[in-house]
């Protein structure tokens, strides 16, 4: 970490800016209005918000869903890049490290897109160059002809060792799930080491990382239970959080849903999460469960940002809420583009 803050003033400034940005996020009532609009109306609505610059810039070359997709991705990337510019000292370093998760997502999106025969344009629409790999580099990866060439171009970047080691198996199984899991395990391991390195603000950064690890593991438990096979899943756990590899395996293999929820509630300490788990005794889809988990996590992040108003928490809270604004707008636009029922689209929204 190269920079050291000269005092509390820069922290106050950037955290205040985050609160202002957060106040401009699209409210729940506007999402409900958007659900009753067609794609042209949705595009006009988006153009009247914080996305005007991207819509106006891209409108001469794109239209319809392509215009919306690309404008959203460009806006998110530029917003994240701007936040890195205004964030001081160790907060900048923590933020930069946290945003490296987009490098993982972007590279995997390119690899999956290439193996599925997606066009370069469609792949480019959903990339968010907010990490270390910028738009120019990602475009270079998209132009590579084979997955092996893409991986070779990544040599020297933190994702290279894991991807190069697992590529052959991934192509054989037609699944990048194991590579993805290993990349995120490496990502969280590095974040934990950084948070515990003794720099100012590390305690608050660690709080968030541990929270994120637990929610990641819980989401994965629900996913793995849905398609359960009699396998050893211990290597799938993200280490460092509440759940050991053995506990992770036991919870996944617990056949009865009621017993699974009961054991899970005994392990977690977060009261809103326990309350949410209490609601799962009835039948809910995996998608509904994942949405509820996201909402509980965002709510707790908001609480942390209020307890620590001049720390990394307000920054991370805004980054996540902005991400889900993009997620919601994209879900609505895509749903309308293929004429999905309103209730089906609504079930995908984080509100």
Please state the average pLDDT score. Answer: 93
Please trace the helix and strand order, writing H or E for each element.
HHHHHHHHHHHHHHHHHHH
**Poorly predicted spans:** 1-7
Percentage of residues in DSSP E strands: under 5%
Number of strands: 0
How much helicity do the residues have?
over 70%
CATH topology title of the domain at 8-86 and 311-351: Topoisomerase I, Chain A, domain 4
Shape: globular
- Biggest sheet statistics: none
CATH class of the domain at 8-86 and 311-351: Mainly Alpha
| Chain oligomer state | single chain
What's the alpha carbon Rg, rounded to whole Å? 21 Å
What gap, in angstroms, lies between the N and C termini?
Answer: 36 Å
CATH homologous superfamily title of the domain at 8-86 and 311-351: ATP synthase (C/AC39) subunit, domain 3
The CATH architecture of the domain at 8-86 and 311-351 is Orthogonal Bundle
Number of helices: 19
Using brief descriptors, characterize the structure shown.
0% strand, 71% helix, disordered N terminus, 19 helices, 351 residues, mainly alpha, Topoisomerase I, Chain A, domain 4
Give your account of this protein's structure.
- This protein is mainly α.
- The protein has a domain at 8-86 and 311-351: ATP synthase (C/AC39) subunit, domain 3 (Topoisomerase I, Chain A, domain 4), CATH 1.10.132.
- It has helices at 8-23, 28-34, 39-47, 52-58, 64-86, 89-98, 101-115, 120-125, 135-143, 147-153, 160-173, 177-195, 202-226, 245-253, 257-267, 271-278, 286-307, 312-337, 342-346.
- Helix 5 packs antiparallel against helix 18, helix 13 (202-226) runs parallel beside helix 14 (245-253) and helix 17 (286-307) runs antiparallel to helix 18.
- The chain is globular.
- The model is unreliable at 1-7 (pLDDT under 50).
């Amino acid at each position: 970490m190269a920079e050291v803050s000269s005092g509390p003033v820069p922290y106050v400034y950037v955290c205040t800016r985050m609160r202002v940005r957060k106040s401009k996020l699209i409210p729940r009532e506007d999402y409900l209005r958007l659900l009753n609009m067609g794609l042209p109306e949705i595009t006009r609505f988006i153009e009247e918000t914080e996305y005007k610059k991207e819509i106006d810039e891209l409108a001469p070359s794109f239209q319809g869903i392509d215009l919306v997709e690309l404008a959203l991705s460009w806006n998110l990337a530029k917003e994240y890049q701007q936040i890195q510019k205004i964030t001081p000292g160790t907060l900048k370093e923590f933020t930069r490290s946290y945003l490296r998760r987009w490098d993982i997502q972007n590279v995997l999106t390119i690899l999956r897109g290439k193996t599925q025969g997606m066009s370069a344009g469609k792949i480019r629409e959903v990339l968010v160059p907010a990490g270390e790999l910028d738009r120019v580099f990602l475009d270079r990866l998209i132009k590579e002809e084979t997955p092996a060439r893409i991986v070779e171009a990544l040599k020297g970047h933190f994702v290279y060792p894991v991807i190069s080691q697992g590529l052959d198996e991934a192509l054989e199984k037609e699944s990048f799930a194991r590579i993805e899991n290993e990349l995120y395990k490496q990502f969280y391991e590095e974040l934990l080491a950084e948070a515990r390195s003794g720099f100012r603000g590390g305690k608050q950064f660690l709080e968030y990382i541990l929270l994120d690890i637990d929610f990641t593991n819980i989401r994965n438990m629900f996913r793995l239970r849905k398609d359960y096979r009699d396998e050893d899943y211990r290597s799938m756990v993200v280490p460092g959080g509440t759940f050991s590899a053995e506990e992770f395996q036991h919870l996944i293999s617990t056949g009865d849903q009621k017993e699974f929820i009961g054991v899970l509630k005994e392990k977690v300490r977060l009261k809103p999460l326990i309350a949410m788990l209490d609601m799962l005794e009835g039948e809910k889809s995996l998608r509904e469960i994942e949405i509820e988990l996201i909402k509980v996590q965002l709510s707790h992040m908001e609480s942390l940002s209020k307890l620590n108003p001049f720390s990394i928490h307000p920054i991370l809270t805004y980054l996540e809420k902005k991400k889900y604004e993009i997620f919601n707008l994209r879900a609505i636009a895509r749903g309308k583009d293929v004429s999905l029922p309103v209730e089906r689209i609504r079930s995908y929204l984080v509100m």
